[in-house]
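quick one: iron/sulfur cluster bound model?
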Amino acid sequence: MKIHPQNVKGKYYIDIDTCTCSAACEIRAPNHIVIDDKDYTAYFSKQPETPEEKSQCEEAMDCCPVEAILNDGEINNQ
Ligand code: SF4
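yep, here:
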């Protein structure tokens, strides 16, 4: 498990050891997830605040083909 250093603290984060850089998540949550072109990994640039934003991030989680997006960061990512 490794988290991108630019992943903002909070509930949502991406395990870049698992991420295959499919970019499927960025399409679902473009205001929250960024693909790092340097090392082809993804990270959360903004945590969701509203129900609509949370819904986008949950959709991004659901579409990840390798289940690299996690949402227990309030426990593990602080
Ligand atoms: S959908 Fe999953 S594998 Fe694809 S870029 Fe996002 S976190 Fe990485």
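The beta strands are 13-14, 33-36, 41-44, 69-70.
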